[in-house]
Amino acid sequence: MPRNAKCRRVCQMPAHCRFSPERPTGDAPITLSVEEYEAIRLMDHLGLNQEEAAAQMDVARATVQRIYAQARQKLAAFLVEGRSLQIGGGSYALCPRQGCRSCGRSCGGCHPENGKDAKL
Question: Cβ(13)–Cβ(34) under 8 Å?
């Protein structure tokens, strides 16, 4: 039996949680977890490498690599297949403070909150 997934630190929730092409297919929507969103945000949007993203999410580099690969596969399916995309669910701890040290800013500490399957 596999062990439970460790909560990943997420420092910013998505501003938008649903995306759809002009003419979506009737297929089921693709669900991107919050930690997959965070990996894309950190590495593709902010330009961090895997080691930096792993430190910010408080997981191993190999875990970030796996999460990132899953996220890219889902984004590719969204673009190529014309399916809807929604962001939600996962196993994460939301940093409760704006300006957390793990985000590259100083706030005096980061404490996990809103863990597993927090609602958006």
Answer: yes
